[in-house]
Amino acid sequence: MKPTELVTGLPGHPTHPPLTDVTIGLYTGAAAFAVLSALGVAEQNLAVAWWLALLAALVATVPTAVTGLLDWLKITRGTPLWRTATAHLLAMVTATVVFLVAAIVGHGGYVDREVTTGALLLTLAGFALLTLGGWLGGTVVFVHGMRVLGEKDRPTADAVRPDATNNSAGGAPQQGLTRAGEGRHG
Ligand code: HEM
After folding, report:
1. Does residue 81 fall inside a structural domain?
2. In-domain check, residue 179
3. How many domains are contained in the chain?
4. pLDDT digit of tens for each residue in the chain (186 aa)?
5. Distance from the CA of 2 to the center of ligand 1, in angstroms?
6. DSSP-assigned letters across all residues of the chain
């Protein structure tokens, strides 16, 4: 294992995607709590839950963004994959800034146990940007195939640990991105 793989993950097991699940889950919870609180459902409790979920999501964003950034740095500049991944980066950074502003603007409301209109609108705007960024991230993986090995016929014992063997099913796992920029990437 290369030292950087401790952060970016092994071939076939990148760390960025599972971290995005945690981050997106927390932001989604925050948005849902904000809407429900604004609608008067357990208003005070969900206002507290909204702000704490937002805070947890912002913390989770740090390792998520770092792992994504390390993968992004391996992409060849100017390729279609790079353009899609850069659009993903911009959408996610913008979403993060909007959520951060929502947490700062909404802190007073959190103390008073209410989600203010401004904080609600900022949370929803952040969520819209997060959805756009998630769509673009999905494009990076499921359309361009970044970090996908795609070895359907690889025996299960090898497939669960694709870096353990060297090319048992017609193709050595690829580490990071190559000059080609697209296709199968470890
Ligand atoms: C809040 C922060 C972020 C979230 C929630 C997020 C979310 C996602 C999602 C949903 C995917 C598709 C993978 C899947 O469906 O499991 C993805 C892939 C990807 N994202 Fe992000 N992303 C974030 C930040 C970043 C940043 C800042 C960068 C680059 C600087 C980045 C670069 C990438 C790359 C290169 C991929 C392709 C797959 C991989 O490398 O693991 N992401 N991201």
Report:
1. yes
2. no
3. 1
4. 888 899 999 999 999 999 999 999 999 999 999 999 999 999 999 999 999 999 999 999 999 999 999 999 999 999 999 999 999 999 999 999 999 999 999 999 999 999 999 999 999 999 999 999 999 999 999 999 999 999 999 999 989 887 765 443 333 333 335 433 334 444
5. 21
6. --TTHHHHEETTEESHHHHHHHHHHHHHHHHHHHHHHHTTTTHHHHHHHHHHHHHHHHHHHHHHHHHHHHHHTTSPTTSHHHHHHHHHHHHHHHHHHHHHHHHHHTHHHHHTT---HHHHHHHHHHHHHHHHHHHHHHIIIIIS-TT----TTS-HHHHTSTTSSS-SSSSPPP-S--TT-SS---
Can you give the residue range of the structural domain that contains 115?
Answer: 13-150
On whether residue 123 sits in a domain, the answer given is yes
pTM (predicted TM-score): 0.88
Q: Is the CB of 8 under 6 A from ligand 1?
A: no
Is 141 part of a structural domain of the chain?
A: yes
Cα 13 to averaged position of ligand 1 atoms, centre (Å): 14
